[in-house]
Write a structure and sequence with these properties.
By secondary structure, the chain is of the alpha+beta class. The chain has helices spanning 18-33, 62-70, 72-83, 96-102; strands spanning 5-12, 38-45, 52-59, 87-93. The chain has 4 helices and 4 strands; from the N terminus they run E-H-E-E-H-H-E-H. The chain has a 4-stranded antiparallel β-sheet. A hairpin with a 6-residue loop joins strand 2 (38-45) and strand 3. The radius of gyration is 14 Å and the shape is globular. The two termini are 17 Å apart.
Amino acid sequence: MSQTVHITAVVTVPAEHAAAAEAAFAACVVASRREEACRQYVISRDIEKAGRFVANEVWASEAGFEAHLAAPHFKVLGDALAKCGAQAEIMKVQPLDEAADAA
C-alpha cells in the first residue's frame, strides 16, 4: 500500500502580478482536483500580503504526485507563475496526527 503525499507550498509574486497568479492558480485547481490521485488541492490567498499564496495538497501516492507535476495544466501554471516572477518554497510534510497514528 502506498503512502499519501502531503505538500505545502508558499508561492510569492510581486503584488502587481497577484491577480494574474490568482487566475493561473484557479485554472489549475479545477484540473488538479480531477486527477485520479488527488485527495485534496486547496490554494489560498494571503489576505494580509498581496501576492502570497499557500497550497495544501494531498496525493494518494508518490506516483500520483509525480503525474501531477508532469500534467499539462501544471506546466501551464508553472509557466504563468514564472512570467509573474514567482518564488516558491515547496515542502513535503507529514501531518502529526498521521505520525501518531502510525506509532
